[in-house]
Amino acid sequence: MLTEAAKAELEKQQYRIVGGHSAVKTCGWTKNMINGQGGCYKLKFYGIMSNQCMQMTTSISCANRCTFCWRGYKAPVSKEWKWKVDDPQMIFDKSIDAHHHLLVGFGGSAKANKAAYAKSKQVKHVALSLTGEPITYPRINELLDHFNKNGISTFLVTNAQFPEQIRDLRPVTQLYASLDAPEKELLKEVDVPLFADYWERLNLSLEYLAQKKQRTCIRLTIIKGINDSMHEKYAEMILKGNSDFIEVKSYMHVGPSTERLTRENMPLHEEIVAFSQELVKFLPDYEIVSEHIPSRVLMFAKKKFKKDGVWHTWIDFPKYDELVNSGKEFTADDYSMKTPQVGLSGKGTIDRMPEEKREKYLKEKGSSPEVFVDEKTQELEFYEKKEEA
Asked: In this structure, what is the dihedral angle of CA atoms 359, 364, 368, 373, given to the nearest 10 degrees?
């Protein structure tokens, strides 16, 4: 699937190629949690411990060339699978090995939290969302079986261009579909799809997503000045997909996306909050539940996850393991648990800092996207204490 040049570039970026079409890379939030610096939004929203999460893909190839994608364009694009198909057991084993090898340096790091590093040696979650389109791997269901049998929860992200694969997918812990624009021509501008019938594929994918019994989520990546309006049309598409959760996330001005978009295209966290508050007006079955300020993302959930006034968006992982391996029918309602922290804080970007403090902060930190977040929020402190306990 990869040319030698493309493989070399990916390895330089700390990817590890597995077989002919899969790859692993350590997520920054995995490193952060091992260093005692808090976890990602999947921890706050759903209860996933970032230090025990592996980030990978089963297909480096994709059928879109999304303008906001921070990955490079060296990997192939294709509308169909035309490569040798690797064995799922091999992918499982080699991916785990590669993940652990990438983390081995933390064992001797003075900064690392020893307990967090020790726990990282047991992978408990896999994010099938690294790059490319993992759902196109022809034996994806067999690989999911390996993860399920080994007590590893699965979050799989698809760009919603392969509806039949969504229809035929076996249970995953949470299935994501990207919704990057609510209108045909705008979707073409944002996603640059290979398929001529990309709009029909998206709509059919949402219809199949609505039929899933396990947890589903629709993700919106908001690019300021491009796809940050048409709230009612977004709501119509979301209702078609009938997802359990919605994530509204800011485009981040990093990587090769900087060649196509500007820093002005990156919304502030407050702008994501404002967009979400307008969107939810058209979604009567949903409420905004929580935010993760460093990632500039908000999470909505269906009101059914609010039981006796208490949100239950976290995942009961032992229960999911039991259910998925039982062979019996089960639904998203069967493996939810109480969410420890919810609500909006009203804080986030440097725009809320006093001017003198903001100037000092920018001078010390430079102009990377990270300077726009409150790096030590109450959310991260909460979970650091939880992990230590």
From this structure: -70
DSSP 332: G
pLDDT in tens, the chain (389 residues): 777 877 888 888 889 999 999 999 999 999 999 998 888 999 999 999 999 999 999 998 999 999 988 766 556 788 889 889 999 999 999 999 999 999 999 999 999 999 999 999 999 999 998 888 999 999 999 999 999 999 999 999 999 999 999 999 999 999 999 999 999 999 999 999 999 999 999 999 999 999 999 999 999 999 999 999 999 999 999 999 999 999 999 999 888 888 899 999 999 888 999 999 999 999 999 999 999 988 999 999 999 999 999 999 999 999 999 999 999 999 999 999 999 999 988 654 555 555 666 566 556 644 333 333 333 333 334 444 444 44
**Cα separation of 305 and 159, whole Å?**
26
Structural contact between residues 318 and 272, judged by C-beta atoms closer than 8 angstroms? no
d(CA 158, CA 134): 7
As to burial, measured by CB atoms within 10 angstroms (0-12 exposed, 13-18 middle, 19+ buried), residue 267 is: buried
* Secondary structure class of 340 (helix, strand, coil): coil
Domain ranges of the chain: 4-388
pTM here is 0.88
**Cα separation of 65 and 63, whole Å?**
7
| Token pair in block for residue 291 | 């935010």
Tokens of 177: 């579909």
Handedness of CA 251, 120, 290, 374 (dihedral sign): negative
Contact (CB, 8 A) for 124 and 43: no
Which amino acid type is present at position 3? T
Q: Which CATH superfamily is domain 4-388 in?
A: Aldolase class I (3.20.20.70)
